[in-house]
Each structure stands twice: as structure tokens, then as C-alpha cells.
Design goal:
Largest interface: A-B, 36 and 36 residues
Oligomer: homodimer
Strand order of the largest sheet of chain A: 1-2
Largest sheet of chain A: 2 strands, antiparallel
Order of helices and strands of chain A: HHHHEEHHHHHHHHHHHH
CATH class of chain A: Mainly Alpha
Distance between the termini of chain A: 28 Å
Number of domains of chain A: 1
Strand content of chain A: under 5%
Structural class of chain A: mainly alpha
CATH superfamily of chain A: Farnesyl Diphosphate Synthase
CATH topology of chain A: Farnesyl Diphosphate Synthase
Radius of gyration of chain A: 20 Å
CATH architecture of chain A: Orthogonal Bundle
Number of strands of chain A: 2
Shape of chain A: globular
Chain lengths: 324, 324
Amino acid sequence: MYSFKEIQEIVENQLSQMQIIKEPEQLYRPIQYTLESGGKRVRPAFVLMGCNLFRDNITDAYFPAIALEMFHNFTLLHDDIMDNSTVRRGKPTVHEKWNSNSAILSGDAMSIKAYELLSEYSGDNFREIIRLFNKTALDVCEGQQMDMNFENMKIVSENEYLKMIELKTAALLAGSIKIGALIGGADENNAQRLFEFGKFLGLSFQLQDDYLDLFGDPEIFGKKIGGDIVSNKKTYLLIKAIERADEEDRKKIQALIEMTDYEPEEKISRAKVFFDKYSVANITAEKIREYNELAKRYFEDVTVEKKRKKPLLEVAGMLMNREK
Amino acid sequence: MYSFKEIQEIVENQLSQMQIIKEPEQLYRPIQYTLESGGKRVRPAFVLMGCNLFRDNITDAYFPAIALEMFHNFTLLHDDIMDNSTVRRGKPTVHEKWNSNSAILSGDAMSIKAYELLSEYSGDNFREIIRLFNKTALDVCEGQQMDMNFENMKIVSENEYLKMIELKTAALLAGSIKIGALIGGADENNAQRLFEFGKFLGLSFQLQDDYLDLFGDPEIFGKKIGGDIVSNKKTYLLIKAIERADEEDRKKIQALIEMTDYEPEEKISRAKVFFDKYSVANITAEKIREYNELAKRYFEDVTVEKKRKKPLLEVAGMLMNREK
């Protein structure tokens, strides 16, 4: 059994062994740049650890793991264009450093390279794996489209929001661990339990993101507190505040989030008054706990020896109790 | 054996049977719109006809054929963003009709849908097919990158140019017919001969595009004559003119193509003087003939009964002697 740290080392090692740069360099340099920007490599780790639950030798899962990391980074690259983001992981985004056309095309190449890496897998269930990957990849696009749609919607329901994060964030984590499990030889029941485990972890992860934006410890969180409020993002916090507010407050909240002439600090503190009044911190924390419990339950139901579960439980614990 | 016309009907029929629109509609409407814009459907036709060379029942190739059309339309969609094109096949491009973010994301979904369609194929050689598709898809991206690079280059060599069109245009035609052949049960030798046939047809097709831009019959060609000159595009004509010109003329040509304050008509007629002086029409026509001959030779070498080759020979003849 590999620990999470060992798994991360395998991922970094595989990534650095990949020969990415070739002609035309202008296509491949942004890909290398994006992959070198780091991150926790949770998705490839999930592929490898999902596999490791069921067998000791996980080399068959190396390329599929890197494929998932490649795909994830492709979505970040294109999302950054769509969101006009200029910085990612402390470095200029690709469309900032190069240009938008370069970011579009190198992103396209990354999504194809993800399939190229996946196609290195030669197990009997290759077709099943690739179909699951297709479904997952399309889910992520649908989630991103819903997220874009929300920008032009006055009211987003809780269900719409949860569906969006399920597609945009949770699907890829769920797909990663299920792919790993299937490569490892899991039966369909166990593979599906792990899918649900990954999905609820992903939902919890994203809600924590929303929560920490306003209620995180600024020194640990690393980002400016209240960024989502300043940029009028439809988060779980905001959706719950609007849903629970009386009519008068609802109008005030909606007027407030559309304001652009406030000082950021003032906008945040005014919003926080409503969020506190309607206890959205507690409500969100409760929802996070609910998802964490569901994730744990599905994980418990996976029929492998308890000791094999230890490393994944450790990662899950980390993801369930984020401080940043 | 199916005629080209029957094959085109199968393609249209398959395309219209596809249930594309689902939630979120904003993601899928641009896909439907793009696929409905028509075109000759040469790539899916090549998949089906490549298959039909080797067997009568070609239903196994239906989904892969549509996959190739989906992928081709994805590349057009993203290319149109990169080239700032506002019109395609007489209709507003997706980023014009919707917006650039929509075009990026729907394009991403199309490339995944191409894989989804390809993954409907269940033959024993599925992995071989998908790996060939990956390679082809990446070739197209590399070709597009080279084409973008050319915009910032003063001099492009003939070899660089031919490499670019081989990747950007010819690879997809070559890949399409080889995929069809492999689905039809062709051995590797025949499949590779058809790949070369498709490649040289593609090269010829693109050179004819360059040729017709200046020397086509305006009434048949359907586009404004000289568009490539007005937009400073590095075409085979221009590359040969610069290569063959004496030093004085070379400087004049290079100064001319960078000019933006000419009236289009004047710029075209001035460029044409040099193109005529250095016989680039003849030279290009000769290169086209050379590629057509190579395509024919590879096709002749395919070891199937002569009568099975008739429909593809007809299409090839059409592609080799374009007037528009």
C-alpha cells in the first residue's frame, strides 16, 4: 500500500518523465507550463489510490492517472480564459503570459493528450474506462456552462447550484477514483461506491471553498476574504441567504450584490450582516457535514480489507476538513 | 457498394438522428447549429467509403464517421475564434452569434463528443482506431499552431508550408479513410496505402484552395478573388513567388504584402504582376498534378477488386479537379 505522499511522488515523477515539448514548441510550451504549476494532484492520486485499494501493483494506472491530471489542467486553462482570470497558483495564466489564441489551442491539444495518455492503458476494460472518461469530461463541460449561465441569472436555486458543482467539480473526482478502481479490478458495485464517495467528497470540497471564502482564517486561507462577494459570485452562502431572507431583506441583498460602486470592504461587511442574520455559516457547515457523512458511508461499504483503506481515508480526512 | 451520393445521404441521416440538444441547452445549441451548417461531409464519407472498400455492411463505421465530422466541425469552430472569422458557410460563426466563451466551451464539448461517438465502435481493433484518431487530432492542432506562427514570420519556406497543410488539412482526410479501412478489415498495408492516398488528396485540395483564390473563376469560386492577398496570408503562391524572385522583386513583394493602406483591388493587381512574372500559377498547377498522381498511385496499389474502387475514384476525381 502506498501512502498519499508516496502516491504524490509517483505522480510528480510520471509528470516529469513525460516528454511534452516537441515541434511546434509554441503549442507545447504552455502545456508544460500549466502542468508544472503544481497543485495537490488529487485527481491522479485518486486514480492511483482507487487502483491500490484492489491491488498492490498499480503501474497499469500510471498513464490513466496522468491523463486525468492533463484533463483537469485543460479545463483550468480554458476556464481561465472564460473567467478572464489573470493569475493561477501565483503565476500568470496562459492567456496572460501568451495570448488567448494560444490558450485555446494548447488547451485543445491538452484534451487530446489526455486521451492519448488514457489510450496507453491496455486492460480488457479499456473501452469501459474510456466511456466513463467521456461521460465525466462532458459532465465537466456541462457544469462550466451552468456556472456561466448563473452569471446572467437573478435567482439560482439550491438544487441548480448543487447540480452545477456536482458536474463541474465533483464529477471529475468521482470519475477519477472509479477509473482507478476499475483498473484495479474492482467489481461494478465497489467501483460505484467509490464513485459516490468521490462525488460527495467533491461536493463537500466545493462547499468548503464557498465557506472559506467568507469564514476562513485569512492567514491560513491565503486568498483575500470575501472575494466571491466582491465579484458577485453565486455561491452556496449567497443562495441560502436569499432563499431564507424575508422579502425586504431579499431585495436588499439582491441590490447589494449588483452594486459595483461600493468599496470592496464595505460590500463584504454589508453582505456579512445578512449572512449572519440568516445563519448561512451554520447551514453551510451542516451541509458539508452531511456530504462528509455520505462520503464516509459509501467508503465504508467498499468490500476490501480495512487496512487497505487507510491511505484514502487519510486523504479524505484532509479534503473534508479544509482550512485552505 | 454505395455511391458517394448514397454515402452522403447516410451521413446526413445519421447526423439528423443524433439527439444533440439536452440540458444545459446553451452548451448544445451551438453544436447543433454548427453541424447543421452543411458542407460536403468529405471526412465521414471517407470513413464510410474506406470501410466499404473492404466489406458490404458498413454500419459499424456509422458512429466513427460521425465522430470525424464532429471533430472536424470542432476544429472549424475554434479556428474561427482564433482567426476572428465572422462568417462560415454563409452563416454567422458561433462566437459571432453567441459569444467567444460559448464558442470555446461548446467546441470543447464537441471534441469530447467526437470521442463519445468513436467509443460506440466495438470492434476488436478499437484501441488501434482510437490511437490513430488521437494522433490525427493532435496533428491538426500542430498544423493550426504552425499556421498561426506563420502570421508572425517574414519568410516561410516551401517545406514548412507543406508540412503545415499536411498537418492542418491532409492529416484528417488521411486519418478518416484509414480509420474506415481498418474498421472494414483492411490489413495494415492497404490501410497505410489509403492513408497516403488521403494525405496526397488533402495536400492537393489545399493547394487548389490557394490557386483558386487568385486564379479561379470568380463566378464559380463563390468567394472574392484575391482574398488571401488582401489578408496577407502566406499561401503556396506567395511563398513560391518570394522564393523565385530576384532580390529587388523580393523586397518589393514583401513590402507589398505588409501594406495595409492599399485599396484591395490595387494590392491584388500589384501582387499578380509578380505572380505572373514568376509563373507561380504554372508551378502550383504542376505541384497539384504531382500530388494527384501520387494519390492515384497509392490508390491503385490497394489490393481490392477494381469495381469496389469506383465510388472512391469518383470522389477523388472531384477533389482533384476543383473549380470551387
